[in-house]
Amino acid sequence: MSLDASVHVTLGTLDLRVALHVDEGEVVAVLGPNGAGKTTLLRALAGLLPLDDGRVALGDTVLDDAAVDIFVPPERRPIGVVFQDYLLFPHLTAVDNVAFGLRCRGVPRRDAQRRAYEWLARVGLESQGTLKPGELSGGQAQRVALARALATDPQLLLLDEPLSALDIRTRAELRRELRRHLDSFRGIRLLVTHDPIEAIALADRLVILEHGHVVQQGAPAAVTEQPRSEYVADLVGVNLFRGQARAGRIELRGGGALTVPDAVVGDVFAVIHPRAVALHRRAPDGTPRNVWRGRVERLDREGDRVRVRISGVPDIVAEITPAAVSAVQLDMGREVWVSVKATEIATYPA
Q: pTM value?
């Protein structure tokens, strides 16, 4: 069993064109900035949005095929969905919410309630079965929504920002619990999120979506070690540059150049960790290979470090200690010298 989808949907200014393959037992997280098309993709897979073109199949079962006018309505798809705001029925109890999907599939009321209570017990809410959504905490509502999605034994589980409505403390706790439930579900699991910590903690593979297109995918370690877009680089917290390399020198697209130790040739990415960036009040002594002037645009304290955004050719972000900020006398608008050792620059083909 696998999910094979080719999705083309035009919605306002969004032109979503995504090809996706997910194997049974795999957890795939779709990441991307706001407006990238993440939720639109899930809604199309669930049958809540018609395809303009493309095909969606679960194993040998075709759910959508725009070319031959095949469309299986949402209620007949073997799919469970956990929505961002959970969409629990406010007038129903927790157990009736969980039983709702079973009843829609023709399960007798008594059997549906029994199975619903079994699922509430699995998520630790058996004693809250008679409560209505307004009487539940955010974490409890999330568990009820997950139980409702899983109670129908779906082949595909879709989760749209399942933890975003929770506070930070509850989110960390339920992230571990959600991972346990996902591990126990052997179907196909697709998660939409904007939180890289959530994606890395829960997923076997990341799919990065920008402007309706997949720009990068792979195992979490592979994606974070070799980002291929500024969005991914920002998620990871590194500086990403692109340019043409020849004889140990990269001419950058946005202006400027970098000297690198690798004999790379052609179109390449270059990554510099902010902690590898040194800042100086005056031009540094010696013969550092990469030195340029810049201006401090922003300082952000993050724990025991300060991230300093420097405008220059090229722009770059440095990460230094508060003591170093004082030593260099950094403040907004101050001119500084930037230096980066060639050995601190990682390169790979674009």
A: 0.84
